[in-house]
## 1
Amino acid sequence: MNETGEAVERGAPGAPPGPWWWTRRRSMVLDAALAGASAIECGLEGVSFAHEARLPVALGVVFGLLVGLTLILRRRWPIAVVLISIAVTPAEVGFILAVVGLYTLAASDVPRRITAVLSGMSVTATLIITMVSFHRDMEQDGWNPPLWVAPLVSVLMAVGMTAPPVLLGLYAGARRRLVESLRERADGLERELSLLAERAEERAEWARNEERTRIAREMHDVVAHRVSLMVVHAAALQAVALKDPEKASKNAAIVGDMGRQALTELRTMLGVLRSEDAAGGASRDGHSRESAPLAAVAAAASAAADEAAGGPCLDELEALVGQSRTAGMAVELSIEGDERSYPPRVEQTAYRVVQEALTNVHKHAPGAKARVRLARRTAEVAVLVENGPSDRAVADAGLPSGGNGLIGMKERVATLGGGFVSGPTDAGGFRVSAVIPDRTPAPVTSG
């Protein structure tokens, strides 16, 4: 009788519409079997009822069969089945009908008030009929038991026929509702996890895009600056190759040094990239569908790539300016403030801004004078690169421009929460300035 988990146990409020209310073939077979057993029992009991009521036996049998077959409606109309069992209690038929009907009513989603009322009616009807039958049987047998025997037997019979099926039905219904609640919670958690996975995938994609942008900026800074200087020196080498072999040899050595420096930086950068790819591949092999670790790996790699690559720092600005001077540019360098150290990313960003600005001078303002200013402050570092108008007498090196230099500098500075400004000057030159904050917490000094 324990059918927890079947949707048809919901009773009338949750039963599907239509004449066929079973959701599974097994449920229909079970109900048909119970209705058949109930019909046989009621048919046999209908014979005794026909004799006592002085009715034709056939009528009593038909009456019992019809009453027993109503049990097949227990899932669709459990209240009606219990009411029929209570109505036929005086005829002393329908034991299976009463027990199964009460169980189904208690296990269904019928309001508990209705279940309590119908259970009380069943107990009362059974108690009265049992007491009357007991007195009648005792009179026929000529036995006069004590007065307390009849009430005790009647109460035991009434409670014994009503309480077990009702309690079992309440347990089955509560268990079914608990299982459904857990299933709904599991479905909700699955949907929530799916949503979190989608958001994690979006974050991972954003982190990958940020990483690609960072790598593109690094490649642009390294290649554009070094190659630009190499082209300038190569042009100078071509111009003096026949006139001044010593100077040509010097320019060739400079071109070679710059090429080696560019290759070294590219190898270092590619090595970091390979290590990040290996970390990402290991994460994908272990958790192919979990994107949150990928996002964390990509973000951490983006934050630590410059440090791992051993990128440039502010102390190397003089060497950077020296390279431009060697290429024939008149560059003035001024440094303000006490010497202090900043986080690697801050120093590298400031260095790259100066590097890209000088590269742009080589590209777009050949022969122009440039001024580089570095200001070391307590909570920030500021850089300014300004050049005058181009000297048209100097031959243009013909360097291509992708138009991404200023955008890359602005993105670098904005990533660290700084400010970036660029634009032409009144004198016909160009100015690039950036202020990069130092996010490192100041040390706490004890009084």
Note: Confidence is low (pLDDT under 50) at residues 1-18, 283-309, 441-447.
## 2
Amino acid sequence: MRIALPPVIDGSAFAGHDPAAPIVTLDGLTMGTRWRVLFVPQPRAGAAAIRAAIVARLDGIVAEMSHWEPGSLLSKFNRAAAGTWMALPPDFAHVMAAALRIAALSEGAFDPAIGRLVDLWGFGPPGPMPAPDAPGIIAARAQSGWHRLAYDPALRRLRQPGGVGLDLSGIAKGFAVDAVAGLLQAAGIRHALVEIGGELAGFGIRPDGDPWWVDLETPPGIDLRPLRVALHGLAVATSGDYARGAHNLDPRTGYPASHGVVSVSVLHASAMEADAWASALTVLGPAGLALADRERIAARIVTHDGGAAREHLSAALGGML
């Protein structure tokens, strides 16, 4: 067993530590998957009120950023006429700014504007589609691309150039994890683990004094030494094709990414950042380690090619072991 520890330990997490405290578990459905929260309760934060607040927060994010909800703000943007400027609420603006920044840093390996390609390949709201031909992919790529968007951070507004389909599925779930974690902290909760569909963030410690331990996902049939992460002020996101097949598109080509990558896990202080970087590195494959090292991203890339599995660790993750 290998252990990955966060770069910083929050000493205040141990103040008033109660080894007899219970752990409360809440869960539910959102974004086509499950959410789950484990937390050490506080007297002024009842479980019923916390659940209601979590549900309301997640519903608000879906109403803004879901490409599956026809009435969401994102869907309205996707239908907007060419030249339309749309004002974005703070959450949407925060996610959009991060998405465009990571798109630029990854040179388009992560791209929030590939909704037309996602739909063409049958991974979006229209449902399964026949395998697209080259002319169809070329046409969809012509309507896609983060570089076609204009974002005004001062006024928090985004311009629809015409035909662009936003798809924030590679970053919004991570943002939702951060949002729920922030909600819990604002309610006075000091120790919690938040999960939405496999993306997790933890802060504080468990009543037994341990951090919130999480094992990185290992794809079936892959023999790797287990890697356990202490989610203490840390988040983890995993992307890969082993669960749902080859659904990770390379925005730069319009075709599924093909580097033999079966799984990418990223550790970061922000689940949103971890989510987006995991998506980018799934597209880039092992060649993306240079970018991960440059940006100090803690990442594990697992490949399976020629019958052999290989694990590639970025320098930042290696330094945490």
Note: Residues 20 and 305 are 49 Å apart (CA to CA).
## 3
Amino acid sequence: MQKKRLLSMALTVVTTTAMLVTGCGASSQSAQGEAQDTTQNAVETPKTETETPASTSESTGEKVHITYAQWGNETETAATQAVADKFNQSQDEIEVEVIKIDHDTYVTKLNAMATAGELPDTAIMSEAGVLKFAENGLLADISSMYDEGDSKPLDSITFKYQGTPVAYSAANEVLTLWYNIDLLEEICSKQGLNVADFTPPASADSAWDWDTFVKIAQTLTVDINGNNALSPDFDPANVDVYGCTVNTLPWQLEVWAKSNGGGYYSADGKECTINDDATVEALQKIADLSDVYHCAPPVTSAANALESSLGSKKVVMATDGTWNVGTFLGPSADFKYGVGVLPYMKEKVTICTGGPNVVFATTKHPEEAMTWLKWYYQEENSWSLIEAGTWMPILDKWYTDDEFTNKWIDNPNYPDHDMYKSAVVDYARENSQSTAWYYINATDEFNATLDSAFSAVWSGDQTMKEAIDEYYDELNDIFSTNN
């Protein structure tokens, strides 16, 4: 069973590590767990003299030198440089040098470099750090990276500051509903149920509404005496198998607010709407799965991560991101699994994420920097991660052209082809919306505070309305101060 993201790539073993460190900081169970937060103390753009336009090999006869910063260790830096070397050898105009910055000092170092006017040309950043740097004038407009007619990154994974693209995710990830087929079939057999009626739909067109999802989860929840949660004899204190669990990381819970017609923020990003009735109602429904319907386990630290939910073989269905195919499920999982679309409250929606690379506004060579990143973003350079299921492609052709889609999902690491295409590929294309950090600043601080607010709800000490009312002023202040 695959537990780590370091996977060998088709090109070379080291290529995987190189692309991995540019990947999905928010795709792990901790939204910024691997990606160092770059929002703290972000400096303003230093005042410098107007720079001469970028020179090229045509005018100088020498390659333009581009630097790319990342927070890997020595091995990862060497691996990233190996990928850059392949790019360097593929053309005679640009030379990329990889700069190693220690993970623990990444933010401090970038800020110091910005103050000194010594930022690299390009770099990896955390999702939550992008807009702070953009706000301070430190990120370049990358809207010209792709030409008319090019296959482009999906709009949902484009970081925008005041409507201008400033970064693209290096990979795409969406939230879906995963389930243990073996456990589902076992419970249905014992209760005399038709498995097809309880299998999560793979199409948004046939997605369960919330009430249906809850009832099915209750039916699949059984106590140690074999009674399901709809039975008057059900013992909620002695549950053997739970029907579902929902990942309660604050950034993931945003999907339910959106599904219920609300959201943490207004659609135009100008208001904090975490206390909106629709949002509060949606979040309370998540708490009710455990507290009222007893069809989900109580929320404890990391207890509803996919590894500890489906992995325990005591939970039938669980929500989480598509990266789990490569990091947890994969071909070596000791149970058969499937994937379906999320249930919905009012709107059929999922959210996406993926770690970005950026071009700094201080570069003397913006065109060359974008040329490098455009090449670096090619799926061929991260193919092993895509093939394994840890990453999803970013270019729209992989979602619209069957030739590319089939190349992506026709492999033994994935569940059934038609199931995955409908529940993941089509769903990501048609029903995915950007996670808040693509257009809202300071989401890391906001989500950390929201996590504190939620803790009293998960423990049963407060309702969701009471908790959000208590924290609203602090949450709104974080939003209004930074946006």
Note: The domain at 13-172+354-395 is CATH 3.40.190.10 (D-Maltodextrin-Binding Protein; domain 2).
## 4
Amino acid sequence: MTPKNAGGSRDGGLVTPGRLVIAVLSVLAVIFIFENTRHARIRLLIPEISMPLWAALLATAVVGWLCGRFFVRR
């Protein structure tokens, strides 16, 4: 007979310490984003725009997430 994990699969369970930390950080990031609702002037290289701070924070978080996904796949 072969052990359960002989095929190379890892059975870490649904809730692992790493997943718990990521979940807590994600919730804190969402709370932080939506607590900052006032407008801010944002400058990216040359143009300056006025937009809600939560939208700029959310866009930055999405770009960071996409970069993380890109580098994890490589």
Note: The mean pLDDT is 82.
